[in-house]
Amino acid sequence: MAEPGLLIVTGMSGAGKTQAVQSLEDLGYFCVDNLPPALIPKFAELVSQSGGKIDKVALVVDIRGGAFFSQATEVLHDLSRQGYRYEILFLEASDETLVRRYKESRRRHPLDTQGQVLEVIREERKLLREIRGRANKIIDTSNLSNNQLKEQIISQYGGEKETGRLLITVMSFGYKYGLPLDADLVIDVRFLPNPHYIPELRCLTGNDVPVQRHVLDQDVTKEFMEKLIDFVTFLIPHYQNEGKATLMIAIGCTGGRHRSVTLANKLGDVLTEKGCRVNVRHRDIMRV
Predict the structure, then answer these.
(1) Does the keyword Nucleotide-binding belong to this entry (predicted)?
(2) Is 190 part of any known ligand binding site?
(3) Is 174 assigned a ligand-binding role in the annotation?
(4) For labeling, which of 44, 149, 167, 190 is most exposed (least CB within 10 Å)?
(5) Does the annotation flag 176 for ligand binding?
């Protein structure tokens, strides 16, 4: 991926912008936090006039700017018209995750004046809807550790030297809890026989051998996995040729505990054996 002249970092308060900026600083980005949008064109001008000395700038623009933030969309339109090159990174997280993070940190949400965290989170989400729609990259941090977020930032913005091979994340999830926002490919495996209806398997997960055997020994599963592996291995080199740094493959079943977990583990193992750089995550495995 070609490095952008300007990287605009924005998103939900509490979604991990601080950790993202720290990772960008480690990559050599000149970072400015809580910049009023009206000043973005000045930084764009400085970057363009630096003769390549300033080639990586990350500007954090978010709701903390108050009344100034309303100018963000207009300013970005102006930048595009003037021919400046920029990308937008939007950090996202679920309402539930953001509420939990604010309770754990005991920090006040920038919009909160009456202790109604969930209400102001929903209000912020509405205010950010337009800039989110313009984002080049959206990262959902709901189920990411700080290290996992850092790895995604490095893979996306670290350049060829830091990135190396394409980083593939294979994630299991449950459709009853919603689609993953940042998935590139979504694979629905609800057509496979469901271990949930077998009493001795119901309380287990796809990490347990009895469930794995039940799912993987089905003829339909064997045929499906052959086709899925062929499909994914066909796509990977083409994604790499286009400069894609990360690929998220989300595999979903009803509850995200049995079928999707089993197949995500299996696909992760196969891709690892083929020399790919793979993370396997199970978003909903602990949900009841």
Answers:
(1) yes
(2) no
(3) no
(4) 190
(5) no
Angle between helices 259-273 and 219-241 (to 10 degrees): 50
- More reliable by pLDDT, 92 or 148: 92
User: 86-92 and 57-60 as β-strands: parallel, antiparallel, unpaired?
Assistant: unpaired
Residue 17 annotated in ligand binding:
yes
Annotated binding-site residue? 5: no
Q: Is 13 annotated as a binding residue?
A: yes
171 is in an annotated binding site: no
Structure tokens at 121: 């989170």
What CA–CA distance (Å, rounded) separates 137 from 256?
25
Of 3 and 275, the structure prediction assigns the larger pLDDT to: 275
Note the pLDDT of residue 1: 37
The span from the CA of 38 to the CA of 244, in Å, is 31
Q: What is the pTM of this model?
A: 0.59
Write down the residue that tokens 């970005």 correspond to.
76
Question: What structural domains does the chain harbor?
Answer: 6-160 (3.40.50.300), 167-282 (no CATH)
